[in-house]
Amino acid sequence: MKQNFVLRDTDIFPDPEFAVSEIYSKRQTVKAIAVRSDGRYGFVTNPVHKCVLLPGGGAESSNLEQEVIRECAEELGCTVRVLRKIAIAEEYRNRDKNQYETTCFLVEVTHKNEEDTRTNEEKENELTAIWLTAAEATKKLSSQEQRVRRGDLAFYNTAFNVIRDYKFWLMYLGKR
User: How far is the C-alpha of 93 from the C-alpha of 29, rounded, in Å?
Assistant: First the structure.
C-alpha cells in the first residue's frame, strides 16, 4: 500500500521554526481505530496535553498487525482483532529529523484485559484510555485540529499527532 498522505512542518504549523532536514531517521509506527461492540471508539489521553489521540506507537517488529495488537493491549487494555488497514501516513518532522511511516488499522475489541500492561513511561505520563461515540470523537478531533491550526497547541509532536490522527479518522469515516 502506498502512502495515502504526507505531513511536513509546513502542513502543521503556520510559521514553522525548524529548518528542513536533508537527512531523516526512519521510524515505523502503528495506530488503531479501535471499536467496541457498543459502538464506542478507544482513544488515549493524558493530563499534560489533554488531547485525545488514537492508540499506537513505535513498531518493535516488521509485523505491523501484531504491533497494533500489542499497542492496543498496552494502551487500551484490550485484546483486539485486526479488521483492515485504513491508511498510511508519511511524516517528516524537522525538529528531531525524524521520518515516520505510520500505518493505521481498524481493529475490533474482543476482550477487556484485567492486567494493566501500559509501559512505565505511559504510567508515569498517566496515559488513560477513554471511549467515545463517533460523533463525540469527530467533535473532539475537529476541535483539536482547530487548536493546532490557530497555533494554540504548544507541543510539537502532539500537534503532528493531532493532525495525522484526525486525517486517519476522516479517512475511516469516508470523508477524505
Answer: 14
